[in-house]
Specification:
There is one protein chain. By secondary structure, the protein is an alpha/beta fold. The protein has 2 domains: 169 residues, Rossmann fold, CATH 3.40.50; 170 residues, Rossmann fold (3-Layer(aba) Sandwich), CATH 3.40.50. It is 45% helix and 12% strand. It is built from 16 helices and 11 strands. A 6-stranded parallel β-sheet has the order 2-1-3-4-5-6, with helices on both faces. Strands 8-7-9-10-11 form a 5-stranded parallel β-sheet, with helices on both faces. Helix 11 links the parallel strand 7 and strand 8. The longest helix is centred in the last third of the chain and has 20 residues. The radius of gyration is 23 Å and the shape is globular. The chain starts with 9 loop residues before the first helix and ends in a 6-residue tail after the last helix.
């Protein structure tokens, strides 16, 4: 027996695999508990009764105080206003100085929304002690508040591998609603209890921002630096990949400009952010998730969609990025962007397209036109409405 299962050998690996598999399935139990709980439709549904005279949907978008400074939430709000109308979309600014649940209840009672955008990150920031029992209680409480008022939840799950956030998302949408994710549903479905997921989801860029980007594109210099450009958070395995790409490019006298920042550090202004991408020939990004020994994460080997795909392409740069499952519904590799698997492939692609200007401009132009068509067609919100069906925003 010792020979077959040496210490730290096959048996240990088998136990670890079984343990990790069971942990990844742990979100199913609270999901089904919420799913089967018989809630009294029409009973205590104050918001539902008061909203009988409202013939159109009302949408509330929640974010923490710092959240409304982020580009993604600015775009969520502006694009939702363009899709539904300014008078039907409301910001809910969650403060850490008040009870999270009380702030949600207040927003539901005052705005009487038909739909509510919930973000597990905001819920986490609003509670100091985020143990499992606190997370469970909070998620069930929010689910009850929304359900008893007939409000349809739309959940933004930015990190599918983080088990607490995945559990919160599953509980909130157990009976109705959709989840927005950045990993392929086909790959992630074994660890999520329902398939009402829009995935991978694009950044909901507004037409207002698109007009601003068009203006930057027209005014950009005709003598841009011949290099690749990266901007974003630095973490493993991304940091190592960028370092290898940079070292490889030095051999051919090209370079990659890395404008990185540590996780959690202050971000640059929106105007500076868009201007940076609009003045580069090639933008590179990665799709790997953060390497971490944190035991609340699982399945972190899955490639994850980045907002950078749409951002860089819409700015008119040639995007060089990994091909992830589901991305072809938006952008086709070789036609709208250039894909790579390894750092060596990325280095060769950068060198090739910096040398071959005509091919680079053709793919960048095709990508930009496709990005514009996706934004102008409100594709982000249409995908959500299709998934919501009879509970759609429109």
């Amino acid at each position: 027996m010792i020979a077959i299962f040496p210490k730290g050998g096959l048996l240990k690996k088998l136990i670890i695999c079984i343990r990790n598999y069971l942990r990844s399935k742990s979100v199913f139990l609270p999901f089904w508990l919420m799913r089967i709980v018989p809630l009294p439709f029409g009973f205590f549904r104050k918001g539902k009764r008061l909203r009988k005279k409202i013939t159109s949907s009302v949408f509330c978008i929640e974010a923490g105080v710092g959240g409304w400074e982020l580009i993604e939430f600015k775009e969520f709000y502006m694009s939702a206003c363009e899709y539904l109308g300014n008078d039907r979309v409301y910001k809910v600014q969650i403060s850490t100085e008040e009870s999270y649940l009380q702030q949600i209840k207040k927003a539901l009672d005052e705005k009487l929304p038909t739909h509510y955008l919930y973000d597990p990150r905001t819920a986490s920031q609003s509670t100091v002690n985020q143990n499992w029992w606190t997370v469970l209680w909070q998620a069930f409480s929010v689910a009850f508040l929304l359900h008893l008022r007939g409000v349809i939840p739309i959940v933004l799950l930015t990190d599918f591998s983080y088990r607490k956030w995945r559990m919160q998302s599953a509980i909130i949408t157990a009976k109705k609603g959709v989840v927005m994710s950045f990993v392929s549903l086909r790959e992630a479905s074994p660890i999520f209890p329902h398939n009402r997921i829009v995935s991978p989801v694009l950044l909901p860029l507004s037409k207002t921002t698109l007009t601003f980007l068009d203006d930057l594109y027209v005014k950009r210099s005709t003598n841009l630096p011949r290099r690749a450009y990266f901007m974003g958070s630095l973490y493993e395995p991304r940091t190592t990949m960028l370092r290898v790409i940079s070292e490889n490019l030095k051999k051919s006298y090209f370079s990659v400009e890395i404008r990185g920042r540590n996780l959690g550090s202050k971000k640059i202004s929106s105007d500076e952010y868009w201007s940076a991408f609009s003045n580069e020939l090639i933008v590179i990004t990665t799709a790997g998730q953060i390497e971490s020994s944190f035991h609340h994460k699982d399945w972190s080997w899955l490639k994850q969609f980045q907002y950078r795909y749409l951002e860089a392409i819409a700015c008119g740069a040639l995007l060089i990025a990994p091909e992830i499952a589901g991305i072809s519904r938006y952008f086709v590799p070789g036609e709208h962007f250039v894909s790579f698997t390894t750092a060596e492939q990325a280095s060769k692609a950068i060198e090739y397209y910096l040398t071959n200007e005509g091919e680079r401009e053709k793919i960048a132009r095709n990508g930009r036109e496709k990005a514009k068509s996706l934004i102008e067609a409100h594709s982000f919100w249409l995908c959500i409405d299709i998934m919501l069906g009879k509970d759609s925003l429109i």
